[in-house]
Here is the input.
Amino acid sequence: MKNLKLMFELPNLFRIYPQLNRLVFKKGFLEKADSDFTDLRLSQIEINNSQTSINLSKNKVLKSGLYLKLEDEVNCRVVLNLQEYSKTRVFVIQEKTGNLNLEINLEGREANVEIHVLSLLGEFSIFNLDTISNHKSEITTSKVIVKSVLDDSSKFVFLGRIRIEKHSEKSVASLLNKNIILSDKAKVETMPELEILASDVKCSHGASVGGISPEILCYLQTRGIGPEEAKNLVIQSYISEIVNLSSFS
Amino acid sequence: MILNLVDIVERLKFFSGMLGVKNLHVNIDSKEVLKGLNLSINPGETHAIMGPNGSGKSTTAGVLSGKKELLVISGEVDFFGKSLLELSPEDRANSGIFVAWQYPVEIPGVNIASFLKAALNSKRKYLGLEDITSGDFLKLFKEKLELINLDEKFLYRTLEGLSGGERKKIEILQLAILEPKLIILDELDSGLDTDSLKDVIKALKTLQKPDNSWIIITHYTTILENIDPDFVHIFSGGKIAKTGGKELAQEIEKSGFEKFKANV
Here is the structure.
């Protein structure tokens, strides 16, 4: 179990969402990906030396979504601002050391966002992820799903926060973090937080950390699947959910 | 001399059978649960195992499938001439042992069809066969879903969030696809409603073949009224207290296990 990349087939987001807008972050700069953006205009992206902002104007639905790709050892801060009735989803698949600070501002009413993060770490990789979902207007929706698989001496640190401001009534927010640890030396720190200043909202948050249960491995073995293959089957299904769980249409 | 010949013939008979369990002692957490089990099963036979809770019925299913928490202290298990106890759980399954579990586990996110395709291909690989093609598997899967009266939407379901009845049906679906030689049903009838039980019994009847054998572990006679057992074994205190024909099951239903306990 040295190299996670070789063990599991990463979900091919581009096969399922061919129109995905890819943003690749290299050390010190943002590089536009090999394909042109489909429904994202460059005018909607602002880059300065410390952060990249993506602004979705009123009624803008970025249906295909965004794929954020961090090269090795990149630190970046991405701010996504959504005005009234705008909507999108963001995918992050992280396999290397890096820091990502993702700030979502749901500025206008009925803005809607979905964030899916999959972190597959091995060796000595460390991934720090901070997300904040700021609900600044009423009837806004955010859904954050962060999953990790950690092997070797890797480490994943997740600080996820939902903040619902005072007048953002009828907002719906969820934050879910699940982690599978495959080695004794791998480590997860997770802090899902809620800060709710409005009264009529629906929020949920949760985190789990664990290995693959011996009962599951035993069951699969009694069906003829050896322990290594059984682990692969379970993890492959777990990571494929990043695609399957996306309810956005 | 004559005695020796009889002995040899007996031995040949023993080894030409499907399963031979000889004087098996098994511990769980250093507590002895099987205390000298003897059982011999030939192809095409159906054996019912009845007995009070804690008499070693489920342990028998567990030890044959290779559950790790069960520690074999002594005894032998012969399966088609091979020493079963030396095989890994996956090799036992691939050589033809299947237990429909009383409490099948949930596996979040794992698609039933993908899991079963992996299981079938493991078996095919073990037998030196090529992987089944996706098209052929899909056809087989749909055919067996129909057999057990499950909707085609189960193609997309995972081993998670299934009802008690659905879980038992999925066990039978696996059995139908993997076509094992020795099938052990561990209290299949518990947690099944009447309609599901009917579906399951109907499927089991079509799955009975001259070359496969069945061990039906149950507390009730419902399944046994529909699938005739050749033998009924009453378990008590970790071994077989009495063996008889199907009339024994009816006797148990009427008067319970009390009198067999005394025999141990």
